[in-house]
């Protein structure tokens, strides 16, 4: 009988202890553990993975009759990108399993303090590029596909990031390059980067024209046979192209019953062409003019028709 009474007493005590544990509100350590697995908390910081360094309970309002516990906390947290000091209002509800976290509500975002530890990474740059180019910031070629990031510069003191993009666009023999510069400022309330300025550079032209070129048609031009057999050799130097033209020289001989062009020999002419000569612009060297176009080069004698003749590359250097 005595043993039975002792067992009943122990059971009652255990129930009281369990009830007291279930009724006990969460400590700072327990609240931190709840936040670290709470989706609403991570949504409030842009779904970034972050580690909570410390948590401080500022005040709380517990109503066991209503089975609610409102807890006001400050947290310090960080990841590899940001350092964060933020405030939250947490709502706990009392259930059979104890106090469970129901809501995580950001408090006073305007007082949040956050600082970027480093500049934007490549993934962020691409995401922001697509976001802003879907608005009014279309790049010069209306596509991000040919653009590559050339540099990312981070000013920690100003909390600004400068992202430079470079577009290399090949069209036939023409290589066009342009730049797009985007300037971002870190937003401590959104823990993200806001675009505050941008600029686009003009196209810079370069040409893939090294090699040997001949007049692309086999048709004999009676009015200008000296262009018919020209060979044009182009080689790239550090800041210009060297061009060499080997031209057949003819004299027009009139005699009865028919006049004809008589071959007299060859003549060589040399010159230079700028690496970034704009497409379609006429450039004069020696006895010739030349015009670079995406589908080849066009040349002519400067004292003849400015229509010129189209040349085709036979072999690249």
Total helix count?
Answer: 5
Give me the Rg, rounded.
Answer: 39 Å
Helix/strand order: HHHEEEEEHEEEEEEHEEEEEEE
Q: Please report the total strand number as a whole number.
A: 18
Q: Which whole number gives the mean pLDDT? A: 83
The order of strands across the largest sheet is 14-13-12-11-18-17-16-15
Strand content: over 45%
Helix content: 10-25%
Secondary-structure-based class equals: alpha+beta
**Largest β sheet strand count, sense and barrel closure:** 8 strands, antiparallel
As residue ranges, the low-confidence spans are 10-20, 135-144
Counted up, domains total 3
**What is the terminal separation in angstroms?**
109 Å
Task: Name the shape in a single word.
Answer: rod-shaped
What does this 3D model show about the protein?
This protein is of the alpha+beta class and 317 residues long. The chain folds into three domains: 96 residues, Nuclear Transport Factor 2, Chain: A; 81 residues; 108 residues. The chain has five helices and 18 strands. The strands form three sheets. Strands 14-13-12-11-18-17-16-15 form an eight-stranded antiparallel beta sheet. Strands 1, 2, 3, 4 and 5 form a five-stranded antiparallel beta sheet that branches. A hairpin with a 3-residue loop joins strand 2 and strand 3. The protein is rod-shaped. The termini are far apart. About 7% of the residues have low confidence.
Name its key features:
8-stranded antiparallel beta sheet; alpha+beta; single chain; 16% helix
Helix and strand layout, with pairings?
Elements: H1 2-23, H2 28-35, H3 39-44, E1 51-63, E2 68-78, E3 82-95, E4 98-107, E5 113-116, H4 122-133, E6 147-155, E7 160-171, E8 174-187, E9 192-200, E10 204-207, E11 211-215, H5 225-228, E12 231-236, E13 240-253, E14 260-274, E15 282-285, E16 288-293, E17 296-301, E18 309-315
């Amino acid at each position: 009988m005595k043993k039975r009474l002792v067992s009943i007493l122990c059971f009652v005590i255990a129930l009281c202890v369990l009830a007291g544990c279930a009724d006990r509100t969460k400590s700072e350590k327990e609240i931190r553990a709840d936040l670290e697995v709470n989706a609403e908390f991570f949504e409030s910081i842009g779904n970034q993975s972050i580690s909570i360094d410390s948590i401080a309970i500022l005040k709380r309002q517990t109503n066991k009759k209503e089975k609610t516990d409102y807890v006001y906390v400050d947290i310090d947290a960080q990841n590899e990108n940001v350092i964060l000091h933020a405030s939250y209002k947490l709502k706990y509800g009392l259930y059979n399993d104890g106090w469970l976290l129901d809501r995580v509500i950001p408090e006073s975002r305007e007082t949040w303090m956050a600082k970027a530890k480093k500049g934007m990474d490549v993934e962020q740059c691409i995401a922001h590029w697509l976001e802003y180019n879907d608005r009014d910031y279309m790049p010069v070629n209306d596509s991000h596909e040919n653009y590559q990031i050339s540099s990312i510069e981070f000013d920690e003191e100003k909390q600004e990031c400068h992202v430079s993009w470079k577009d290399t666009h090949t069209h036939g023999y023409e290589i066009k390059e342009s730049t797009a510069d985007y300037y971002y400022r870190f937003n401590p309330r959104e823990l993200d980067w806001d675009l505050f300025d941008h600029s686009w550079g003009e196209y810079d032209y370069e040409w893939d024209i090294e090699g040997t070129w001949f007049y692309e048609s086999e048709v004999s031009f009676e009015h200008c046979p000296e262009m018919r057999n020209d060979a044009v050799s182009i080689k790239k130097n550090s800041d210009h192209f060297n061009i060499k033209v080997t031209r057949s020289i003819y004299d027009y001989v009139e005699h009865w019953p028919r006049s004809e062009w008589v071959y007299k020999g060859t003549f060589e002419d040399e010159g230079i062409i700028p690496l970034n000569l704009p497409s379609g612009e006429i450039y004069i060297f020696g006895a010739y003019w030349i015009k670079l176009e995406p589908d080849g080069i066009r040349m002519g004698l400067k004292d003849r028709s400015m229509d010129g003749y189209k040349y085709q590359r036979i072999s690249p250097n």
